[in-house]
Write a sequence for this structure.
């Protein structure tokens, strides 16, 4: 029993050391308080000497003045908040000048309320940086920033495609064109070809039925009824406008798909192959994971840090020895959506480990909560896969049953241990 308690103490000590991440203290630093039209800078030494305040605008020429000001004062480290998107241009200019820029989450560096001015904020940032009391944000490299922008833009264009499809469907349904009742989705090739003919005013049944492909050919009688609607001339104009928008947006999505594929094959081929082997993670999910997290997992001390950064790790709410329910933390929303979607795909795979895990969790919690728990474990697998760059092997439901049996034996043995007060 003493050996077990001693091992527990050693583990807790190591865990605390990993959680405490203190940056080295500096002799001289700068704090930059960012706004849309104004930047306030404060320079100081650790002993409080050589202090200087300066205010700058936010045009590019004025951002370069900040760089020159820092170089004149021999400043190699500065701290700024990640305020919206205003920090990005200044970050690029300063890093090009070999100045180490630390971008911090505003939530982590708030100072006392009701004592806030721009000058006090800049001074507070400088003080935190001088004493190493800053938790730097994750900053991707240039290649990852490119693929991240491409993946996010593709997501926005995909949302736009869905809005156009919904608008097309609304016009058709309002005129009693019941394509959706016969064909599973209107963005199939068969449905889109029929809609293009309807937009041109074609009412000939043979022409419309010739657009049918695959299983839709066996539903000709239903299609004849579904395509008999009340479209008028101005409806044809609306459909043509929406179809032009649809083609343009689809062209943009295709271009982004091609650009993302080229970057993946050039810089992230091995990591992509490993991610694609994980249950539930497809091509687009793997691309989003790489674009948001990269392939270097050394940025995150442990898999738990990675899941917390994503925003699917449960928070802590403990007081007086009692633990209360908490929601998941805020994190990278793009990665969270991708991994939760991958988790839904994984649990739908029969005879898989993830399907068995979801069924077990579903018995004692809601499906939405259970899928987040599955997503957290799946993200830990992603962390391990990218850390070791090994292909994932699905062990199936037998592995889950084996783990449950081992856990039951462990807890049965633990309950049989004699209780002691020795620490």
């Amino acid at each position: 029993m003493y050996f077990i308690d001693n091992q527990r103490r050693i583990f807790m000590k190591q865990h605390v050391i990993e959680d405490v991440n203190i940056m080295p203290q500096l002799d001289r630093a700068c704090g930059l308080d960012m706004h849309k039209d104004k930047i306030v800078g404060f320079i100081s030494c650790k002993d409080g000497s050589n202090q200087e305040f300066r205010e700058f605008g936010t045009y590019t020429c004025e951002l370069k003045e900040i760089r020159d000001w820092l170089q004149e004062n021999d400043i190699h480290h500065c701290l700024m908040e990640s305020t919206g998107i205003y920090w990005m241009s200044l970050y690029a200019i300063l890093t090009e000048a070999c100045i180490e820029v630390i971008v911090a989450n505003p939530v982590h560096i708030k100072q006392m309320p009701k004592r806030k001015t721009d000058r006090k904020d800049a001074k507070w940032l400088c003080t935190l940086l001088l004493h190493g009391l800053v938790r730097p944000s994750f900053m991707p490299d240039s290649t990852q920033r490119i693929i991240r922008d491409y993946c996010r833009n593709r997501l926005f264009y995909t949302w736009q495609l869905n809005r156009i499809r919904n608008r097309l469907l609304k016009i058709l349904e309002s005129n009693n064109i019941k394509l959706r009742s016969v064909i599973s989705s209107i963005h199939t090739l068969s449905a889109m070809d029929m809609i293009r003919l309807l937009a041109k005013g074609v009412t000939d049944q043979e022409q419309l039925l010739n657009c049918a492909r695959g299983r839709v050919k066996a539903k000709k009688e239903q299609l004849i009824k579904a395509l008999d609607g009340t479209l008028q001339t101005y409806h044809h104009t609306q459909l043509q406008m929406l179809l032009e928008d649809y083609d343009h947006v689809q062209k943009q999505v295709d271009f982004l798909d091609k650009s993302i594929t080229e970057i993946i094959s050039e810089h992230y081929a091995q990591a992509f192959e490993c991610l694609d082997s994980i249950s539930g993670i497809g091509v687009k999910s793997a691309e989003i994971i790489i674009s948001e997290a990269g392939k270097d997992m050394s940025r995150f001390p442990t898999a738990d840090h990675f899941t917390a950064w994503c925003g699917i790790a449960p928070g802590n709410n403990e007081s007086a020895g009692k633990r209360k329910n908490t929601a998941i933390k805020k994190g990278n929303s793009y990665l969270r959506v991708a991994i939760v979607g991958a988790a839904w795909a994984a649990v739908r795979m029969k005879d898989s480990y993830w399907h068995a895990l979801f069924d077990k969790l579903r018995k004692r919690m809601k499906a939405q909560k259970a899928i987040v728990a599955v997503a957290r474990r799946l993200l830990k697998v992603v962390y391990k896969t990218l850390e070791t760059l090994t292909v994932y092997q699905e062990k199936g439901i037998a592995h889950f049953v084996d783990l449950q049996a081992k856990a039951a034996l462990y807890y049965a043995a633990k309950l049989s241990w004699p209780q002691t007060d020795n620490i």
Q: What stands out?
A: The beta strands are 28-34, 39-45, 52-56, 77-81, 100-104, 318-319, 322-323. The domain at 28-131 is CATH 3.30.420.110 (Nucleotidyltransferase; domain 5).
